[in-house]
Design a protein that fits this description.
Structural class: mainly alpha
Strand content: under 5%
Number of strands: 0
Radius of gyration: 22 Å
Distance between the termini: 64 Å
Largest sheet: none
Number of domains: 2
Order of helices and strands: HHHHHHHHHHH
């Protein structure tokens, strides 16, 4: 009995000496576990990261609620977290919130607002935001139609490693005039300089 009591107090002492997860550790763990599809382990780390005020924690926790990944599905709560992360300037969240607005997922559908959020994401150097914003300008849905600007954002997205953008460029290039393609190259360079300066 005495041995068991000593063992119990020893375990309590050891656990009290172990360092608590740090904000940075939780952020890394949240990201790593989420993208390893280990949502059960990701949830507590993402919750703590969100509580610390990390945009990535808010965003990934939001996705978990939207999709019901190891938590009860709650689109409104999830999208509110995604928007909070988007308002902090996190490009992935800005892109995600734009998609929510496009489809009316947890919010009122609003294509024009979706395009505005994709612009924020695009300027945060998110290649998916650049692709979605390109569609706004190329189709004239949610933004004034502007083939040059739309093509420029597709070029940026491709430059960032988006294979889908590469495919889209190849498929629509014959429909874009030589003049618009030339303008698009100039716009792409201007946008690249603007993005690079913002991230210096």
């Amino acid at each position: 009995m005495r041995h068991a009591i000593h063992l119990l107090f020893g375990l309590i002492f050891l656990s009290s000496c172990m360092p608590a997860p740090s904000p940075e550790t939780d952020k890394v763990r949240c990201y790593g576990r989420f993208y390893a599809d280990d949502y059960e382990s990701a949830w507590p780390a993402c919750q703590r990261s969100a509580d610390y005020g990390h945009a990535v924690g808010k965003y990934l926790l939001g996705l978990m609620y939207v999709q019901g990944l190891s938590v009860p599905k709650d689109e409104s709560r999830g999208i509110a977290l995604v928007r909070a992360a988007a308002e902090m300037g996190y490009g992935d969240a800005q892109n995600g919130y734009g998609i929510a607005l496009q489809h009316g997922l947890g919010v009122t559908q609003d294509i024009a607002q979706a395009c505005l959020w994709w612009e924020k994401s695009a300027l945060a150097n998110n290649f998916l935001g650049q692709q979605y914003l390109a569609s706004c300008y190329l189709t004239g849905e949610g933004a004034t139609e502007d083939p040059s600007r739309g093509f420029a954002y597709l070029l940026l997205s491709r430059d960032g490693g988006n294979k889908k953008a590469h495919e889209l460029i190849d498929s629509i290039r014959p429909e874009i005039s030589a003049l618009d393609q030339s303008r698009a190259e100039q716009i792409r360079r201007e946008l690249r300089d603007r993005i690079d300066k913002a991230h210096e």
